[in-house]
Design goal:
Length: 97
């Protein structure tokens, strides 16, 4: 496994951990405290987010085709898409305000 493959593997691993804590936040709430770590879910979420960003930066440093620079237009389009599907979910009785 070369360095690029290793960093991509770590990114996938950290993204999976981010997904896991995001689901726990949705299920139990952001302020719920884990009984063993004594860490609030929002703290774990922030930690995992930072780990994903760190892996992205490592990839960016070794692969010039990839950038962690934020594209505001892409972000805005994603906001609109997420809201569109949230409203569909709400109309179907699966999401609430």
């Amino acid at each position: 496994m070369n360095k690029k493959q290793y960093y991509l593997t770590k990114l996938a691993e950290e993204a999976a951990e981010l997904a896991q804590i995001a689901l726990k936040c949705a299920q139990f709430g952001l302020e719920e405290v884990h009984p063993h770590t004594l860490e609030a879910n929002y703290e774990a979420l922030q930690k995992e987010w930072n780990d994903v960003v760190a892996c992205g930066v490592l990839i960016e440093l070794t692969q010039p085709l990839f950038t962690t620079e934020v594209d505001e237009e892409v972000i805005e389009a994603k906001f609109e898409k997420v809201e569109k599907y949230r409203l569909i979910s709400k109309a179907n009785g699966c999401s609430y305000d």
